[in-house]
Design goal:
Blueprint (H helix, E strand, L loop, with lengths): L1 H19 L20 E5 L2 E9 L26 H9 L15 H13 L2 H6 L4 H5 L7 E8 L8 E10 L2 E8 L6 H13 L3 E4 L2 H17 L7 E4 H9 L8 H9 L12 H11 L3 H25 L2
Parallel strand pairs: 3-6, 6-7
Antiparallel strand pairs: 1-2, 2-5, 3-4, 4-5
Amino acid sequence: MALSLSRRLRERRAVGEHELSMPGTREAPEPELASEFLGGTVERAGDSTYYLIKEDLALDFPPLIGQPQRLKRQLQLVRGIGPKTEERLRQAGIVWLAELLDHPRFGREAARVLKAIDARDGDWLVRCGASNWDVAALFSPEEFVFLDLETTGLCGTQPLFLIGLIYLQGGKLCLKQLLARSFEEEAGVLRAAFESLSKRPVWVSYNGLTFDEPFLRSRFCYYFGESPAPRLHIDLLRHVRQQYRDLLPNCRLTTVEAYILDTYRPDDVPGYMIPELYYQFVMYQEPALLEDILLHNSRDLQSLVRLMGVLQSL
């Protein structure tokens, strides 16, 4: 899709250049970047600008109901300990990971797990088998950020143009949409997002482990040579698949909204149209072309906040 859109854009420009080369015509000026729409402001990040849309939300941060203390009792977090070995250890009176520190076989690995808990190395603990929710409770709500991207394609070598974030600010959940009004403003969007994401070590997304985080890493490294990385990335799609795969027609976010959150989007912009609409916006700078995309992004993010609360309670 992205390649065909790029080809069409080049063809349109080629037609325009041909028309401008005709005798008696004048070169048409580039349209000015759109501004003062949807209550947004032009911001500067580094050497580039971007467009920022902010909104305080009437949503509460979902309570963190995990039990971090339970992590120190999960003997199976230690490599080499399965259900049967854990049962034998408990019968021998070993209940806490700290009680394994002098064990000739498991002591070193138990120390490694305890060190990861103290360091809040969330992703490593989850890979060892810890619950996302128990690990999440190691962090404060102010350290969470919900994120969603809108891009011009599925490959990290293609530009993104919108990064939507929700996080706590001043005790309230705030939606921030970082928009590139032109391809040149992608650098400003990424610079601003780099700062926000670096301050918040817990990322919450929907399919973000597969798409959003790798895509962001590719774009960050392209511009800056480095990328922020979360200590814990909670991909809600994986939890939905685990709990509802056999109960829902599919695990698309809009389907989950309808069946679980009792929310419907009859007028939602189809995902396949988003790159085309953005290319048109870049050419003509008509804010109306972006309104449905910005609404789509906002709905996605607010659904993540609500969905996290539901999934924790299961």
